[in-house]
């Protein structure tokens, strides 16, 4: 994890792992964050979350309000995390070592790895269907298990190539994917408009028995889960923005705008097309079947390039997280390993699992344990006023000891306990088709696991750290120059 020369940061394969990015290589701009968040989300792996409210039995407008409310609420919590890596110059899991300890930050690395792993598998899974389906209708090619297996393999290989090249490749590719997919979705509204209806698409009623319980689940599973997927990813991009050139306000605004637009545009398209295609138990199959013949080629192109862009960004983040967990691995080697695991999950998702139940349970459970980590990391950011010692954050990566974030053998026990308490409360109050937490009885059966987990974590961390201030290095905080532009 030796920092690369400045020139290497501008071309070729990125060799930076979770080391501190030197300021000479921090040439990113806030607009680049918006571009990546837009481009990397313009794929069916994100669009499909707009289908979830329809599959839960909600009508169109309640489906829309649940997603909008959840997305805005999640953005308020998650967007400030971009400021942490802006100040530290490294990814978020490593940055969290300032609060959790240089070994305790492995909690964040594992959560980030699991989040990206699941979403990357989902992206390739849905993208494969968007490639096989149109090719079957257009050219009569097979649409069975062999066709899906080959398509998944091709998408996985292309995605990992993008991820290995790294930040610069993702930045450039995201711009074109964002532009092309926005045009595709605008045309798609016309393509499906004649079949659109606002009534429920399922005949079995609400998934949880009544409107409010189901709406609450949709708010978390389809809305809140979107921003929560970025609790680790945001730092991968904001670490390339120099705090000497751009203010925290501009990075925060860029992260917020990028998340809200990057999530709601594809998800609302997914909701619209789900009701137009009457997609009940499956999304991509009915979407392809209901598409006019002329729209199949644009749908195929999005299935290909949108999947590569989104999966590439997720695999890139996974590579960083594994690099943080196993320092001897280089980022490219870590990226190859996690891509193989993600591809395995894709095949399991197609041949073994019930997709809807697996996706819903996954996002709800990961939200329950990811929220406490985000709350504690932001508390730590506020307590140290955004001032970190970048060199001390890298102690674990250098396989050494000591530094101001060493705490107790590299762990801040108080932070770890607060995270465990918040996660336990979240897991005990979650509601999925596969698992129902016992605390649901205290919330009238409504899934408010996100709120309970956040509140329990905040209270526990505050009480546990009374009289125990977070270490702050004796250095001047970095301020942006007044003339920097987005």
From TrEMBL:
Q: Which InterPro entries match?
A: Pur-cyt_permease, Pur-cyt_permease_Fcy2/21/22
Keyword set includes Nucleotide-binding: no
User: Which residues does the annotated region (Disordered) include?
Assistant: 1-26
List where the protein spans the membrane.
33-54, 60-86, 106-126, 146-167, 176-194, 214-235, 251-275, 295-316, 336-353, 359-382, 403-427, 439-464
Subcellular location field: Membrane
Membrane topology label: Multi-pass membrane protein
Which keywords does the record carry?
A: Membrane, Transmembrane, Transmembrane helix, Transport
> Which family does the record claim for this protein?
Belongs to the purine-cytosine permease (2.A.39) family.
Question: What is the name of the protein in this document?
Answer: Purine-cytosine permease family protein
Q: What is the lineage of its organism?
A: Bacteria, Bacillati, Actinomycetota, Actinomycetes, Pseudonocardiales
